[in-house]
Amino acid sequence: MISMRNFTPALAATCLLMSGTSVLAEGAQDAKRAHITGWDQLTAKSHTSDGMERSRDGKPRFAGPLGAQAVSYNGYQYVVFYSSRDRSKPREEAETYVVVARRKLGAFDWNYSVLDGYKVTSDDAHNRQTIGISGGDGVIHISFDHHNRPKMNYAATATGVADNPASVTWDNSVFKYAENLGGDPKTRLNVTYPSFKAFPGGNLVVYFRTGGSYGGDMRLGKYDAEAGQWGKVHQVSDRRGTFKGLETSRGPYLANGMQVGGDGSLHAAWVFREKPCDYTTASRSEIFCNHGLFYAKSLDEGRTWLRADGSVIADTEKGEAISIDNVGGPVIEIPKGLGPSNPSITSTVDPASGDMHVLLRHLPQPGAKQSYYFHYLGKPDGSWSQQQTNFDGNDATLAVVGDRLYAFVGRDKGQIYYAERKADFRKWKRLPIEIDKKRKFDPQGGYITWDLSLIEEGQATMLWHRTPEKRGVSSPLQVFEIAFE
Prior knowledge:
CATH topology: Methylamine Dehydrogenase, Chain H
Strand order of the largest sheet: 30-34-35-36-1-33
CATH class: Mainly Beta
Distance between the termini: 44 Å
Number of helices: 1
Structural class: mainly beta
């Protein structure tokens, strides 16, 4: 077992949160400023990858901070992250652990739970974590340590832990490891980028890709909160099919997973990465293998998948799957030459209107020097439109609050932009983050993620895994509370 000294907060601050749901909701809809109300250092040392496990020709790949993921629920916040790694030891002896920290909202009094008996197996910055809560039974779910790994690494709490947090002793016994969601441990899933999403009725889904970037499929598992167990994992998409007259292979990219609508509908927006890829110069990356904006939705929690116009594509219970041959083409044509960025596609569903909002960064025309985010808007009637924004980024998280669409830019910078319904979401403005009236907060570098669980109440949390002093050296992980006024 590891010492808790690495997890002791080094810089504590009291978070003076706003109170009163109605006031907070009004601020989120009409905010003129966002300001930091408190911050803390969750740990001084969290694992960063040196990139050598997946090196190519001796050059590191997938190096950097691994970040953290958080969710807030019932007055508490839960953060999953990785412990430090001692680079002075041989690679096979350098141990890293999965940690889930929690705090009561309104203070930074952290408790820590280390996943007992599990050691992180890989050293790869794509091995992100995910965390979700099934509202129907109060179970907290985590998944971690994947980048095309054979099995799904998964752990969960007992029933009711999230519903009765004050009565739970937060120690190393809270989470129980269950490979492959508690299913057959012999099943090979080749998991990449798992992501939990909660349904309004209390159930939960996990999306992940199986296989590689040029030959991968969407998979979906559903957790039944009433039964307290996961059902069969279904194949949602098939890598096979014909593109431009050639029998080829491909992989789907959904950077922030599938999205759940206010009515419990499930939505997927993605780009395909095509094999063979025809990019030819060192200056052009694999994003020039990506193409199209594709879309499908499900009205029965992921069993049956429909096109934007409501026609059926596939029934997964019958073994059918979405493919490039049956999806009906992209809802918007985006050629490879525009370099649609696979880590920079993000989406959300407007809970009021049912509109599908997608941000995707790419070039405005082939050969352009600067990429921008483009906003793609899908209406319930199946129509789609597009509009170039005035900003870019390597990652973003979307949220609709009233008549505003927010984009929380993350990864290597922390910024907030918004567009308004009255302007058809065509004009984007930056909402500065302030330390106080005179000082702005503009974090750069490292790996930044957002917890938007309380955005409708005027609160957001930024998690910033700082750039290491040296490649592969563990670095600080900090938490910033942000209020909207």
